[in-house]
Amino acid sequence: MKTFILLIAALLISGITFAQGAITPAAPGVTYGKTITADNAINVSQLSTALNADSVYQGRVSGKVVEVCTKKGCFMKIARENGSPVMISFTDYAYFMPQNIVGKNVVVEGKAKVNETSVAKLQHYAADAGKSKEEIARINQPKKDIEIMADGVLVVN
Predict the structure, then answer these.
(1) What is the pTM of this model?
(2) Class of domain 2-155
(3) Residue ranges per domain, the chain?
């Protein structure tokens, strides 16, 4: 029985370790999660304006990926003109992003809103993004910013 449990644990660990290798590389036209199109997408600068008018924006947003989770692709960030990128998570962790998506233009479809992220969660994201212990230690204030919970992602170019 003990051997069986160790075998299962080893299989789970190896599955997690090699999960990134099974993700389709980012290329124009590739979708992740729900299949979507770029129709009616607003750019990320328009998203701020939309959220000033309403507390939630449901729809498509386009932007350039500037960061992706280095552990397994469980989140990504798209650039914004003020320098603070928009965090994008994926509904129910149903899909993950490849490492080569950084620098690509994408359209995400989902629900955007302004959230406050705790220090613990910000530190967790920083660790997943491969930040140094010193950079993580400097995170000592919660952050209120736009987050998107995406149902689907389309690589545009």
Answers:
(1) 0.76
(2) mainly beta
(3) 2-155
